[in-house]
Write a structure and sequence with these properties.
By secondary structure, this protein is α+β, with helices and mostly antiparallel strands. The chain has eight helices and 15 strands. The strands form five sheets. Strands 1-2-3-4 form a four-stranded antiparallel β-sheet. A hairpin with a 4-residue loop joins strand 1 and strand 2. Helix 3 runs antiparallel to helix 5. The radius of gyration is 32 Å and the shape is elongated.
C-alpha cells in the first residue's frame, strides 16, 4: 500500500477492461468543504465518490455523480469501510468490490425539471425524465405536489404525470426517484394561477390607479363594485369552478336548445330541471364592468395612464373568463356518459360549447371584449349542461 505524508485522503484507482472507476474517499469535514449545501455527516461517516469512466484525478472535478455514505465497519452496496495501519500510519480502505467495482450500485439522480407554470383547473404536465441512474437501472417516481411532506402519488413507472390544481399555488413540489435500493430527492418551483385570483388582481389594480378626482374615482368605484359582486363566495366552488344549480325551470335554456332537441327527437322535459343560475351571474357582472371600462377608455378627458390601466384590466378579466370556460369544457369532455341514451345531447352540448369558445376568440380579434364574455358565458353554460347529462343515470 502506498504511503503519503501530504495527502490525508487515500484515492484508489480501480480499472476494468470496459469501465474505469475512481473512488475518492473523503472525511466528513472535507466533504463539507466541497459541498457546503449538503447536511453535515456524523464524524464516523465518510463519502465515497464513484466516477464512471474517469481516467485521472483531474476528471474528478466537477464532482462525480456517484456518491455513497459509508460508516466505519458498515457495508453499503457491497462496500465496507475499514481502517488499516501501514508502517505506523492509518489508511482508510474500501473493501468488497466485485469485478473491479463494476458491481457497485450507485444511487439515482432526481431531476424534477421545471420551473412549472399553469392554471388552476387545467392539467399541468410534470416531467421527471431528466432523472438518471449511473447503472442505468429502471427507475420509479413519486410526487409531492405541495411539498407538505406527504407523497401524493404511489411509485410510478412513467416519469411524466399530469396533475390538476383546483386552487392557486406558488411554491415547491418534490420528486423522489428510486432504483429499488437507493433513492434521491429533487425539488422545483411551480406557480398556478386561477380565474378568481386574476379577477381579484384587477380589483387591486383599479384601486391603485385612482386619480384623486372625485368624479373619476366614483366611476372607478362603480366598476369595482360590479367586480366584487362577481367575486361573491356564494358563486364559487373554488378558485377555478363556479357554482352550478339545477333547481327550477330555465326557459332561456329551453329556448336555446329547443330546435336541436326537436331535430334529434329528444324530449324537452329532459332539460327542464337544468337551470344554472350562479355561474351566469358572475359573467353578467363581469360584462357590465368591462363595458363601463370600455366607455372610460373612449372618454377623452381621462389621462392615458388610466386608459392603459383599464385596457390591462379588461385583458386580464377576459383571460379569467376564458379560463373558466376552458376548465368547464375540459371537464365536460372528460366526463364519462353513464347512460347511453344521453350520449347525443352530451355530444351536442360539447360541440356547442366549442363553437362558442371559438366565437369568443373572434370577438377578441374584433376588439369587442364585452361580446367575448357573453360567448364565454354560454360556452361555460353548455359545458356544465353536458356534465349534468353525462352524469344522469
Amino acid at each position: 500500500m502506498p504511503k503519503s505524508s501530504k495527502i490525508p485522503i487515500l484515492i484508489f484507482l480501480i480499472s476494468t477492461l470496459a469501465l474505469t472507476f475512481i473512488f475518492s474517499l473523503f472525511h466528513s469535514s472535507q466533504a463539507e468543504n466541497l459541498e457546503s449545501q449538503e447536511n453535515s455527516q456524523p464524524s464516523n461517516q465518510f463519502s465515497v465518490y464513484i466516477c464512471p469512466q474517469a481516467k485521472s484525478l483531474e476528471e474528478i472535478n466537477p464532482r462525480c455523480p456517484g456518491r455513497v455514505i459509508l460508516g466505519l465497519g458498515k457495508t453499503v452496496g457491497g462496500m465496507t469501510l475499514t481502517i488499516a495501519n501501514y508502517e505506523g500510519k492509518d489508511y482508510y480502505l474500501v473493501l468488497g468490490f466485485e469485478n473491479g467495482g463494476g458491481a457497485v450500485n450507485l444511487p439515482p439522480i432526481a431531476n424534477a425539471n421545471g420551473p412549472y407554470q399553469g392554471y388552476a383547473g387545467l392539467p399541468i404536465t410534470l416531467d421527471a425524465s431528466g432523472s438518471s441512474d449511473p447503472n442505468n437501472d429502471p427507475l420509479e417516481y413519486r410526487w409531492d405536489f405541495n411539498s407538505d411532506g406527504n407523497w401524493d402519488t404511489d411509485w410510478l413507472d412513467n416519469p411524466r404525470i399530469e396533475h390538476i390544481f383546483n386552487n392557486d399555488y406558488d411554491g415547491v413540489l418534490r420528486l423522489e426517484v428510486s432504483d429499488g435500493q437507493f433513492s434521491d430527492l429533487g425539488t422545483t418551483s411551480i406557480k398556478v394561477e386561477s380565474a378568481r385570483t386574476l379577477k381579484q388582481e384587477v380589483v387591486s389594480d383599479l384601486k391603485s390607479v385612482k386619480t384623486g378626482n372625485r368624479k373619476t374615482d366614483k366611476r372607478i368605484d362603480r366598476i369595482i363594485w360590479f367586480l366584487n359582486q362577481s367575486l361573491n363566495e356564494d358563486l364559487w366552488k373554488d378558485a377555478s369552478h363556479l357554482v352550478f344549480f339545477d333547481k327550477g325551470r330555465c326557459k332561456k335554456i329551453e329556448k336555446l336548445l329547443r330546435k336541436p332537441l326537436r331535430k334529434d327527437k329528444l324530449k324537452l322535459k329532459e332539460i327542464k330541471s337544468e337551470c344554472p343560475k350562479p355561474g351566469m351571474v358572475v359573467f353578467h357582472y363581469e360584462k357590465v364592468a368591462v363595458r363601463l371600462m370600455m366607455n372610460e377608455i373612449k372618454f377623452k378627458k381621462n389621462p392615458d395612464e388610466l386608459k392603459i390601466a383599464f385596457e390591462n384590466a379588461i385583458e386580464k378579466l377576459v383571460k379569467a373568463d376564458f379560463l373558466l370556460a376552458k376548465v368547464s369544457l375540459f371537464e365536460a369532455k372528460n366526463t364519462e356518459v353513464r347512460n347511453p341514451k344521453f350520449q347525443k345531447i352530451t355530444d351536442y352540448l360539447i360541440r356547442k360549447a366549442e363553437r362558442q369558445l371559438t366565437q369568443a376568440n373572434k370577438e377578441i380579434e374584433r376588439k369587442r371584449p364585452d361580446k367575448a364574455i357573453m360567448w364565454l358565458s354560454h360556452s361555460w353554460l353548455h359545458s356544465q349542461l353536458a356534465i349534468k347529462f353525462a352524469n344522469k343515470k
